[in-house]
């Protein structure tokens, strides 16, 4: 189960949390389109509504009115091809001896199976094979013996992998980020309360103020009455493993993650792309939408260097076509790219063109685009990519292709260039990513571009010296 999702938790002074939770989920929609859900607590009992589909479809008129209570959590879940799986839609909620629990999880545990087996031996019954339920049961068990903070700490010491969680125990809303800070999580202040969520753009949507990132290994407990919060540094770890791909592709450009505004990061990566492998051409086109900030940085750096290169919107995106990436067959993925993108002939015909995209995974998009631009009369098509070649799967929560589907998995750049039919192809270096994020390589998770992961993954190289001791248990490979 690989869960690349969006989470939120809110505690308000004295109005229902359902509506602000709903708006936050809208702001986080890009992080998950398979299902959406909200769980609230009114001081006496939990209320839950979890449904498949986009946020706008998952809640019918009236659903929010039944979600009483000024405190609650929410979740949007990332689709994994073929899994239309109501069992795994979140927030996960359960009642047990010492109260009720709700959980929203973004990330992927590497030892969930092991913990699940141990708990099953103790008589715990599971309704899904997801990580989140394992965390809920482990926490429920710890809460029988410990206070809230110690119980969370015990669970954190047990679970390994990436997780940003919002949790609700009875009325109390909390947020936890894994000790390596792999997935983002931020705290914000609202006019009449506090919010913990995956991305700061959700706080903006609520007219709130970003306070700061939740620190790796930190627990944030919102006061039940919405008037403040307490923090506990539960686990300290030397190195972080922030996911660089959040900045490159996944997060919204208007979000600030670990102190960096994603839009500015992407523009700077675009500038570095020009510095590292700029190619003279008539026009530079972004692959919408994710290539846009890269392309504007690239064009700006080129113009600063005296180039006459022009920035243009030469590819139009049909915004009503969903995500092509997760279509089950290659044939469908190819058709979907064509449905999604159409060239504007006048900006392309007879011109030397450079297109900029954030990443190449299977190569479907670049392959189709190069052909499309050539058919539209481009004299030359150069491809520049704002990330290094993706050579290995992600085990930390991003839905990438499996290793044998990755176009860069086993062939050098020259062969990829030939395969996609481009006149030239260059990727950005890992050093450029680290420098832009003002981080050392050791503090980033670069698993998908180096094959070295912050945790031991059976059958994969790891970066154990930099990160942590061997952890047993094996994740489901993040393929589709
Ligand atoms: P591909 O066509 O398989 O090479 O995928 C690359 C395209 O999909 C790029 O345009 C990216 O913006 C986008 N992309 C990259 N990673 C992901 C992901 N994990 N999920 C969905 N789309 C992605």
Give your account of this protein's structure.
This protein folds into 2 domains: 5-239, 4-Layer Sandwich (Glutamine Phosphoribosylpyrophosphate, subunit 1, domain 1); 263-436, Rossmann fold, CATH 3.40.50.2020. By secondary structure, it is of the alpha+beta class. 28% of the residues lie in helices and 25% in strands. A 7-stranded antiparallel β-sheet has the order 3-2-4-1-10-9-11. The protein has a 6-stranded antiparallel β-sheet with strand order 5-6-7-8-12-13, with helices on one face. Helix 10 crosses helix 11 (364-375). It is built from 14 helices and 24 strands. Bound molecules: adenosine monophosphate. Adenosine monophosphate is lined by residues 249, 287, 290, 323, 325, 357-365, 398-400.
